[in-house]
Amino acid sequence: MQKHGWHIIVFLLGFFLLSSCVEQKEAKTRYYGDSYNFIVTADSMQLLRYLPSESSLYQDTLYVYEDERVAVADILTSDSLDIKNDTAWVQLMRDESTFGWVEEMEMREQVVPADPISQGIAAFSDSHFNIFIILVAAIVMVYFVRKKYGGRVPLVHLNDIPTAYPTVLCIMMATAATLYATIQMFDFEGWQYYYYHPTINPLAEQGVIAWFLTLVWVIIIMAVACVSEVVKHLKLLDSIVYLLGLCAVCCIDYIVFSKLTLCYIGYPLLVAYIVFAVMQKRK
Predict the structure, then answer these.
(1) I want to staple 91 with a disulfide (CB 3.0 to 4.6 A). Which of 72, 73, 200, 229 is the partner?
(2) What are 164-190's pLDDT values in tens digits?
């Protein structure tokens, strides 16, 4: 592993350089309106009692706090306000006595839709890279400890067990990440609509989003099957090590393919990865 360490370093440097060239998109359409509910994610969010164009010398301010639910009471754009261009203001209401205005862009950074699916998407987007680092660090540590005291360590693609489920799970994770990046490139507005009006039913969606949701369900089922198969083939400690490694590989697949597909490199890389995974399984 040490003699291949520099290959890993070069790959990671190239990966981050390529992923940094991707521009972040902004939604062109507002997919929420009056009475739409949000949950505050910031420690506190400041609201103005009056619009800047209405206030005089005194401006009353109030705050809503983390995990509180707020509803949209009104939305005013720059066309109807005597303020700077390209600015929209949203009036949020927590209760009858707590309501005020906030700039739309500022609000979006401090709230998530109240729907649990939307909250899950936001939480995963914010934390998946940290989870990836923790899992990879954990499996590397466990790998070396197990290698030192217990000989060969079972690991998907390298020292695999006699079942195809883990390999298929990794391929599905890479494919799902590629589909997700494809949605971000070619159907970004559709994904924004889904984020504000989510569903777990793939039949309720169309196009790539429907395929992506279907694949998510298949991945969940396949993950359960993998745990069952691993426990059958390995002892308890080896099962834990193998499953940690499987999680780490799935995280690597998701990060790499979701980023590199945005630079169009993910598509040929996915084909190469599938060939590699199948060849390793056949060995």
Answers:
(1) 73
(2) 999 999 999 999 999 999 999 999 999
Q: Which pTM was predicted?
A: 0.83
Highest average pLDDT, of 85-99, 148-162, 255-269, comes from 255-269
Q: How far is CA 226 from CA 14, 138, 154, 181, in A?
A: 32, 20, 14, 26
Cα distance between residue 161 and residue 155, in whole Å? 8
Q: pLDDT-based confidence at 252, cuts 50/70/90?
A: confident
Which residue, 275, 236, 265, is CA-closest to 157?
275
Return the half-sphere exposure (C-beta side, CA atoms, 13 A cut-off) of residue 40: 20
For residue 122, give the amino acid letter.
A
Q: What's the pLDDT at 4?
A: 45
Contact 261, 20 (CB under 8 A): no
For the chain, give the DSSP string: --TTHHHHHHHHHHHHHHHTTPPPP--SS----TT-EEEE-SSEEEEESS-TTT--S---EEEEETT-EEEEEEEE-GGGSSS-TT--EEEEEEETTEEEEEEHHHHHTTEEESSHHHHHHHHHHHHHHHHHHHHHHHHHHHHHHHHHHHSS--BTTTB--S-SHHHHHHHHHHHHHHHHHHHHHH-HHHHHHHHHS--S-GGGS-HHHHHHHHHHHHHHHHHHHHHHHHHHHS-HHHHHHHHHHHHHHHHHHHHHHHHHGGGT-HHHHHHHHHHHHHHHHH-
Structure tokens at 183: 């949605």
> In angstroms, rounded to a whole number, what is the distance separating the alpha carbons of residues 154 and 158?
8
Q: CA-CA distance, 150 to 157, in Å (whole number)?
A: 19
